[in-house]
TrEMBL record:
<dbReference type="GO" id="GO:0003723">
    <property type="term" value="F:RNA binding"/>
</dbReference>
<dbReference type="GO" id="GO:0005829">
    <property type="term" value="C:cytosol"/>
</dbReference>
<keyword id="KW-0489">Methyltransferase</keyword>
<dbReference type="InterPro" id="IPR004441">
    <property type="entry name" value="rRNA_MeTrfase_TrmH"/>
</dbReference>
<dbReference type="InterPro" id="IPR001537">
    <property type="entry name" value="SpoU_MeTrfase"/>
</dbReference>
<dbReference type="InterPro" id="IPR029026">
    <property type="entry name" value="tRNA_m1G_MTases_N"/>
</dbReference>
<feature type="domain" description="tRNA/rRNA methyltransferase SpoU type">
    <location>
        <begin position="25"/>
        <end position="167"/>
    </location>
</feature>
<dbReference type="GO" id="GO:0006396">
    <property type="term" value="P:RNA processing"/>
</dbReference>
<dbReference type="GO" id="GO:0008173">
    <property type="term" value="F:RNA methyltransferase activity"/>
</dbReference>
<protein>
    <recommendedName>
        <fullName>tRNA/rRNA methyltransferase SpoU type domain-containing protein</fullName>
    </recommendedName>
</protein>
<dbReference type="InterPro" id="IPR029028">
    <property type="entry name" value="Alpha/beta_knot_MTases"/>
</dbReference>
<keyword id="KW-0808">Transferase</keyword>
<dbReference type="GO" id="GO:0032259">
    <property type="term" value="P:methylation"/>
</dbReference>
<dbReference type="Pfam" id="PF00588">
    <property type="entry name" value="SpoU_methylase"/>
</dbReference>
Length: 176
């Protein structure tokens, strides 16, 4: 087996990325502290053609060297919007007809393995702060909550890992 070169991968340009169809998913980062996590979410969002990222609260915005370190330019291809208040971002998406899910461990959450998505609907997911998770007021505003099943000793995953799992699962169901 020969590793593929960058040319073998035949990736689209940033200009083409702006024009191509995206999956009906917006990712909301609720007070995410780590610039590396933010960059990783951008890179995953680029890989699976996420519609937009909402950066909220203390979440840093591009351009920033440390975001770029992990995003590797995806911060330039994926559309993003900044909101001072995550609650306001969720409110705007709900008003625009999105179903908004907190990715959080809450009573009555839906397992990521059980979520059934409709290609005719628009979705958003809220990923929370590395320590505190998604704010309770934001969870209360959401359509529902999705929980990633875990079977080890830890009670949570890194936010960028969580984003990867959730975005991939949404991509598999919503596809392009």
């Amino acid at each position: 087996m020969k590793k593929k070169s960058v040319l073998d991968l035949k990736r689209i340009s940033q200009e083409e990325f702006k024009r191509v169809e995206k999956i009906s998913l917006t990712v909301i980062l609720d007070n995410v502290r780590s610039l590396n996590n933010i960059g990783s979410v951008f890179r995953t969002a680029d890989a699976f053609r996420v519609e937009c990222i909402y950066l909220c609260g203390i979440t840093a915005t591009p351009p920033h060297t440390d975001i770029h370190k992990t995003a590797l330019g995806a911060e330039d291809s994926v559309d993003w919007v900044y909101f001072q208040d995550t609650y306001e971002a969720v409110d705007n998406l709900l008003a625009a007809g999105y179903e908004v899910y907190a990715i959080e461990q809450v009573e009555g959450s839906i397992s990521l393995t059980d979520i059934k998505l409709d290609k005719n609907k628009k979705y958003a997911v809220v990923l929370g702060n590395e320590v505190k998770g998604v704010q309770q007021s934001v969870v209360d505003k959401c359509t529902g909550s999705i929980e990633i099943p875990q079977f080890g000793t830890k009670h949570s995953l890194n936010v960028s890992v969580t984003a990867g799992l959730v975005i991939w699962d949404f991509f598999k169901q919503l596809g392009i």
